[in-house]
Amino acid sequence: MRFAENLTFGNLFQLYYEDLINGFPLKGKWSEEFFKNKHPIVLELGCGKGEYTTGLAERHPDINYIGTDIKGARLWRGLKTSQEKELVNTAFIRTRINLIEHCFGRNEVSEIWITFPDPQPREIKTKKRLTSPQFIERYRHFLKPDGIIHLKTDNIIFFEYTQDVIRDSGHELLYTNYDVYGSGLDTEVTQIQTFYENIWLNHGTKIKYLKFKLNPNA
């Protein structure tokens, strides 16, 4: 039922390899042709049920938010929330994140949120981590030069791996926090919680957060 209902949402784009390689019509034209305004665009990667996409969109109607995930059943919840709250500044893309650079044009995205991604714990799969140098180079295709990347995770290995990538690549670490709730941080980082975050919090896991800017010369 959810997959059938997904087909009725006007702000869902289900994009496959052939669609993107042949040229996605909205690439570089999201503001002009979909949102029909010049507001900044913020992208959530692996958005799951869309808690950050919809939560941020509700708080900031002057910013456009796009959530991406490969799981249509998860996206359904974000789409329903957008519909119920009449959030006209949201869109969702169902696609694989390793194709994300085909969805956006140069300098089209102002910020990226990566919320509780698969940490890919096996050393052999580090290239699949969403903050690996390989993925960061994908983001460089469409993230503005001063754009910010946010990471929120429960996984300490993934968190420290990301800090190593930032340091080794000369990116600018803007903020880091190993325990956002224990530190008393009161921002959107703690005010919005994802489905998976609540699971980890119930297990007593500390939630980590950092944000950084890309090294323009890397």
Provide an overview of this structure.
There is one protein chain. With 218 residues, the chain is of the alpha/beta class. It is built from 9 helices and 8 strands. An 8-stranded mixed beta sheet has the order 1-4-3-2-5-6-8-7, with helices on both faces. The model has no long low-confidence stretch (mean pLDDT 94).
Strand tally: 8
What would CATH call the homologous superfamily?
A: Vaccinia Virus protein VP39
Q: What topology, given as strand order, has the largest sheet?
A: 1-4-3-2-5-6-8-7
| Strand residues, percent | 15-25%
Q: Report the structural category.
A: alpha/beta
Low-confidence stretches: none
Rg value: 17 Å
SSE pattern, N- to C-terminal: HEHHEHEHEEHEHEHHE
What is the C-level CATH assignment? Alpha Beta
The major β-sheet equals: 8 strands, mixed
Assembly state here? single chain
SS element count, helices: 9
Mean pLDDT: 94
CATH topology: Rossmann fold
Distance between the termini: 46 Å
Do you know the CATH architecture?
3-Layer(aba) Sandwich
- Give the count of structural domains: 1
Shape: globular
- Helix residue percentage: 25-40%
